[in-house]
Amino acid sequence: MLAAYRPIFSLLRGTAFLLAASGLHGLLLPLRGQEEGFSTAALGLMGSAWAGGFVAGCYFAPRLVRRAGHVRAFGTFAASAAIIALLTGLWIDELVWIVLRAFTGFAMAGAFMVIESWLNERATNENRGTVFGLYMMVTYASIMAGQMIVAASDVRNASLFMVAGIFFCLSLIPTAVSSAAHPKPLQDVSLDLKGLYANSPVSFAACLLIGVANGAWGTLGAVYGARIGISTAEIALMMSLVVVAGAAMQMPMGRISDKTDRRFVLAAASFGSAAVGVLIFLIAPRNGVFVIAMAAAYGSLAYTLYSLAVAHANDHARPEDFVKVSGGLLLLYGFGTMIGPVIGAGLMGSMSPESLFLATALAHFLLAGYTLLRISRRAPVPVEDREAFKTLPSERGVTPEAVRLDPRTPAVQEG
Question: Closest Cα to residue 286, out of 230, 356, 239?
């Protein structure tokens, strides 16, 4: 049995190093930028640039992979990310970091697409659910591990940039020495906005607004922590627990949504996320433990929303459209993450650090209101006609190619 998973374990090792490097570098940059006195606008634009590069990578990376092959393309993407990590340590400048961050997003999208297509090729219909679950575990654990490396170090030390570069290079080795057959060429990514909206207006708006909120928090959460005076270790733990709390709550929230109209659950979780965000803004906590606890409470609601929105969309989609709908929603989420950091940075620059949560609360209130409006306009899908809720990996670490790895996809392919 283990022999069947050996090639997959090799790929997951490379994935672990790649995600650890991404988590480390992604947390290090805003913290170091804060130390260097970068403007709030520049720190926000770094997040927008990364998201823009990632979405662009989802569109253009398949062409590069078809031209160069999976191994050489992955080597190019990972090596580029390593070079960029080292350059950010050598060249401390706002504008340079914004530009380099866009290239990092592009490289990460390409690398993820190669790995996800390879995992999809190695998985069978019998073990696809297990492979998908392992990929989710590696995603969350590796991002958290990379962030916790920052907690144990001094962000003013250039060695952290070197560690990120080393991890990017280490991700090359399992793929480079693998004897597994190359997967099929990557398929081009498309975005049918009209079709996505017609399928589910709620999910269309939700993925865009969730991207706005998560993009603002993911980019500027560390800056918020630094400006209210909690330690680097507490910041790293806070950023990790927000995502982990959301991952832990996905299944309970999903099971509730299986038994009722998913839109009620989506609206309630959105309103709860907004309420917690407003509460943090009003209380303005400064104690590290209290800040972490409140941030985790926020994440336990906010980071379940994307999976709920995708599940609702797939309840309305035809089985053969599963890949197109799920992949399109992920790209919509990506567009939202370009907008969120700009809004969050604008509020933080003119108000208190806690105003970051006003940006997230605005997106969540809009989502809750629109969802409630749509409940009165469209009947729910009958419970017996829905697919059971499935948890999804962190949206920041997957591409539309990962949708093909989802255990629901084989039924589409076989049908």
Answer: 230
Contacting residues for 16 by C-beta, under 8 A, at least 6 apart: 138, 141, 142, 145, 171
* Cα–Cα separations (whole angstroms), residue 55 to 73, 189, 229: 17, 10, 34
Using the structure block, give the residue that is written with the tokens 């839109």. Answer: 263
333: which 2 tokens? 């989420």
The CB density around residue 94, as the number of other CB atoms within 10 Å, is 17
Q: Give me Rg for the CA atoms of the chain.
A: 20
Distance, in Å, from the CA atom of 388 to the CA atom of 134, rounded to the nearest integer, reads 19
Q: How far is CA 158 from CA 47, 153, 225, 231, in A?
A: 21, 10, 21, 19
Contact 258, 388 (CB under 8 A): yes
* Range of weakest confidence among 152-161, 221-230, 373-382: 373-382
Return the half-sphere exposure (C-beta side, CA atoms, 13 A cut-off) of residue 33. Answer: 29
Q: For the whole model, what pTM was predicted?
A: 0.88
Is pLDDT above 60 for 412? Answer: no
Q: Are 119 and 11 in contact (CB under 8 A)?
A: yes
- Which pLDDT belongs to residue 11? 80
